[in-house]
Amino acid sequence: MKTHNLGFPRIGAHRELKFALERYWRGELPRPALEETGRKLRADHWRRQRRAGLDLVPVGDFSFYDQVLDMSALLGVVPERFGWDGGEVDLDLCFRMARGRAPRGEPAAACEMTKWFDTNYHYLVPEVVEGQRFRLSSERLFQEVAEAQAQGIPAKPVLIGPVTWLWLAKAKGRPFDRLVLLDELLPVYGEILARLAGQGVEWVQMDEPALVLDLPPAWKQAFESAYHRLHTAPVKLLLTTYFGGLEDNLGLAMGLPTEGIHLDLARAPEQLEPALDRLPPYKVLSLGVVDGRNVWRADLEGVLERLEPVARRIGLERLWLAPSCSLLHVPVDLNLEETLDEELRGWLAFATQKLEEVTTLGRALREGRETVSAALAASRRARESRRASRRIHRPEVARRLAAVDDTLLSRHSPYEIRRPLQRARLGLPLFPTTTIGSFPQTDRIRKARRDFRQGVMAEADYHAFLQNEIARVVAWQEACGLDMLVHGEPERNDMVEYFGERLEGFAFTGNGWVQSYGSRCVKPPILYGDVVRPAPMTVEWITHAQSLTDRSVKGMLTGPVTLLNWSFVRDDQPRADTCAQLALALRDEVLDLEAAGIRAIQIDEAALREGLPLRRDRWGEYLGWAVRAFRLAASGVRDETQIHTHMCYSEFNDILPAIAEMDADVITIETSRSQMELLDAFEDFEYPNEIGPGVYDIHSPNVPTVEEMAALMRLAARRIPPERLWVNPDCGLKTRRWEEVEPALRNMVKAAERLRREFGETQGVG
Ligand code: GLN
Ligand code: ZN
Description:
The chain is α/β, with parallel strands linked by helices. It has 27 helices and 23 strands. The strands form six sheets. Strands 1-12-11-10-9-8-6-2 form an eight-stranded parallel beta sheet. Helix 1 (16-25) packs antiparallel against helix 2 (31-52), helix 11 (300-314) packs across helix 13 and helix 22 (575-595) packs parallel to helix 23. The longest helix has 22 residues, at 31-52. Zinc ion is lined by residues 436, 606, 646, 648, 731-732.
């Protein structure tokens, strides 16, 4: 039996890689010093994994930027605009592909970045063209294997499998079916495997997470042909799947001629039995039994109950144990946490602890449970403590949740009745202008927050500072001529953290960083218990803003689904229930805002789409409870109170009916980059309420002209009645500078004025 790991976080326990990368990019660190940081981190990570007792340690999971980009480099896939000479694809070329520029080489447009399956990690999308050639073009993997071997590490190289790599690639230039490239691609994989075999490697981990997706028949066929060809390679292949169950691809995956297969049993425990039934006698079965996507300690005894019969059935020689997926998605080490209380800490396991869990399970199977009785007892105690803790289980929350019925899920009247009431109260013109919430987070704001957190600035002073910032933003918006104002969010560092810190049931780590892309990391809060709102969270800021102006100020909240999707969430109850608890807490905030005289409230659901399950047949269930949670948060208000929501992406054609079901009076969305492409969806589906298709791309420093924005709105007005259109940016302005925001918003107001003249001022009023 073997224990192993699929990937270790590479950013470093103290984010050493982040800081070294950023210094290198700024020209403050020479290239050899950056390489040295990489070597040190790899050595440290390999040592940690060996110390935990793993039999096989992944190599090639380290990356200076992204593992998909590294695979493209290895295959010699570099878009033409980077002027590659066909030699070694070196680090600076990789950085240019990732970020558009590097200390050496000409700048060019960076490659597209997108989410890695259903995680919050972003990879660089490989670009392929018709007639694409592939050639082994990077020595990095082989060097790292040699480096590990020199340190006595039992190395198991990790590759992204050919079918998944191609699946993630995008065809550029003349449209063509990228699958035709597989034939060209496989010889290079063959060469890579032969090189590894030459280094004495026995096993290679071939990551093929595409196997957990809905695959078209041609792609299933591609798996057959690819692995029949790679079968002749002089190494053993571990076909590695994660982030879900194989389902309809189970027979396919089990039948592929690889010496081993890895299954994610954290996400899809139900696939164990059918997999055992179809496991060919020659194949090793690697079971991902420790959840690589969440931060909870494993139930070791529960896992053993399942594993012991498997060991008896297939024999220990064919059974391997590992985390469910790469540990890239969890923080490095719980032992670095200094602020978490003992009780909470006792419930958690980060990457380092998860590997200890894997080896404990391995030992129990090999040598008997009694040899690890202390570890099993500790795991049992953690579980019992979670089951009983009064911090987790709050009877008043359970009672309230049980009492939720349909009356709480609908506004009093339908939109057609609400609309004139809101119009009369808000006194808005045709094409009303607004923004999405945040205004630039200036150095002053950041410094004040830091000073306050470090105790250098007194609470009263910080408070006064924020009230003053709000006053400035309100005055500026009035002068600019915006119709519906915001308070600017100066008090928020992050749209999830701000609310998490004010709700009971959330905890924050000091060092729980997880890589999001490149050198960027996020520190997701841990939602561990029933959610309670001890006091209003936003009312004083919004009412202060409202007291300074006659125009309406929008209250600004982060929605329940977004709070859920951007946190590590408890695994002891369905996500839907946790989401409903968040919704109830937000519902109270919404009602407090209304009672304080706020006439419009925006509930942001920036992360609604990214919670979509990988498999289509599960979308309905997710959207069902997600929409329900939004409605639970929003529906308590009177008809004349206007509910807004905001989503920052353009592809939601496929979920438009669900978004309509949310029944927000106004939705603002991202569209400017796609030239209103999104609005094509409105051809087939008539969105019933008001909509603000973003006309100002806030991801770019460019200032859009009046005519550009007016033109975008004219496109929108072809699909949506003008009296239901709003004019606004794509997203919040917090990452922009005032020098850009001021002219852009002035132009936006002028664009709205131009549109009102064109479409007739009277049309939409009253
Ligand atoms: N209200 C938030 C802001 O303006 C929304 C951010 C987001 O959608 N990501 O910053
Ligand atoms: Zn947004």
